[in-house]
Amino acid sequence: MDSIPAARLVSCESNATPGRWRVSRLVFEVPINYADERSESIRLFARSVLRDERPIVRPHDQTEFDQVPYLVFLQGGPGFGCPDPQSISSLTNYVLNRGYQLLLLDYRGTGLSTPVNARHLRSLGSPQDQANYLKFFRADNIVRDCEAVRKCLTENYAEGRKMWSLLGQSYGGFVSLTYLSKYPHGLREVFLTGGLAPIKRTAEEVYRATYKKAIERNEAYYRKFPMDVARIRKILNYIQKREGGISLPAGGLLTVQRFLTLGMAFGFHGGFDTVNSTIFRMSSDLDQFGFFTRATLRAVEEDTPFDSNPIYAILHESVYCTKKGEASNWAAARVGAELPLFGWTKDEDNLLPVTPPFFSGEMIFPFHFETHPELKEMREAANILASFDGWDELYNEEQLRVNVVPVYAASYVDDIYVDFEFARETAKIVRKIKVYETNVLYHNALKAKTEEVLDHLFALRDDSLD
């Protein structure tokens, strides 16, 4: 395990809502490459949230009052910054009520943590130079950042208070398993929601499993909204007649292929209704005007926000490349091309005429780098990364088998993003884990049904079997 220097705290500003929260905005500096002391620095942005306590009599010993243990929320993705505490107020209040202070850390390259963007990448040089830069934005360096920040924030803590807890949602669970593999000494406990990564599986195996689940969800969608079969056909026919696609307000293109990626929402609570609302709106436009209005195209554009979160597209498949010798080679596209129901992923004219068109799930395709303007500028670097097979190891299976950090996981049977059987396979490897399995919650349950999920996880922690 490599030694990580403490991050440098650049700035801290706090504000409080009396009787509620004290929120601090923190900015740190860390090296982009921890293996090279001379490498450039990048910035990490975080918010810490504490209950705004106003005791009548201040405690004589301030240690317990000031050194509240941290729980770090690790966001899903990859490629998305953390939400602000107000937008996840149910989670924020739950964590604070349990006696923690909450840390919301934007992963490197996301949110306000030196966010990856096309203009900055261009300044780095050739597509190969850009790809070399982007290689530093995976989970292995994310956990190094976390350790560097932990050392900084807990420098003056009493020795028994320096460890912190993790709450990893989805990809945040993947990051947590990497953390357990590399720096378990920094962790008190780990909570996972939909984040038991398929650590023994290749990208191709992952997508073969998730396409099967996507088929199930498409079938369920059409059972709920059978009237959308005709609406979707009408929409697809209209798009196909516009050669080259339909221009979107922010400069992208709406094509048949991009439209059929709206199924990414099928794994969420309320996801069916979200997609149905979009389809109804588009169909209504065609009925009334014979074209899509700007407002409708703007809504469609926001359903796949890869231009503002480009890491999601660029490095998504690399999260399944867990060791040297593995390259993704656009695994989702290769597997989809073999499946008749998803033939459109290879050729948008290849839509089965006798069945409802099937939407893809959480897959990234080369055509995303043609239909999203920010991604289009990163296309060559993305292709280089797709063929790269020199990735560092993300998980240490030997370390996970002797793990001593308590882990509490929620695993969802009908998860279209993290295959349930692969999650079970991983759970069998991790020592000191307790798993809550359910078929009545979907992947975004932490956000949709916060208290229900966290109650189950803390029950795993607090209840004894014997």
Automatic annotation (TrEMBL):
Which Pfam families does UniProt cross-reference here?
Answer: Abhydrolase_1
Q: What are the residue boundaries of the AB hydrolase-1 domain, all occurrences included?
A: 70-199
Q: Which PANTHER family match?
A: 2-SUCCINYL-6-HYDROXY-2,4-CYCLOHEXADIENE-1-CARBOXYLATE SYNTHASE, PROLYL AMINOPEPTIDASE
Signal peptide (UniProt feature, chain positions): none
Q: Which organism is it from?
A: Echria macrotheca
Q: Does the keyword Hydrolase apply?
A: yes
**UniProt-listed GO biological process terms:** proteolysis
Show the GO MF annotations.
Answer: peptidase activity
Q: What is this protein called?
A: Proline iminopeptidase 1
> Keywords assigned by UniProt?
Hydrolase
**Which InterPro entries does its entry note?**
AB_hydrolase_1 (IPR000073), AB_hydrolase_fold (IPR029058), Peptidase_S33 (IPR002410), Serine_prot/Carboxylest_S33 (IPR051601)
Q: What is the similarity comment for this entry?
A: Belongs to the peptidase S33 family.
- Keyword Transferase included in the entry's annotation: no
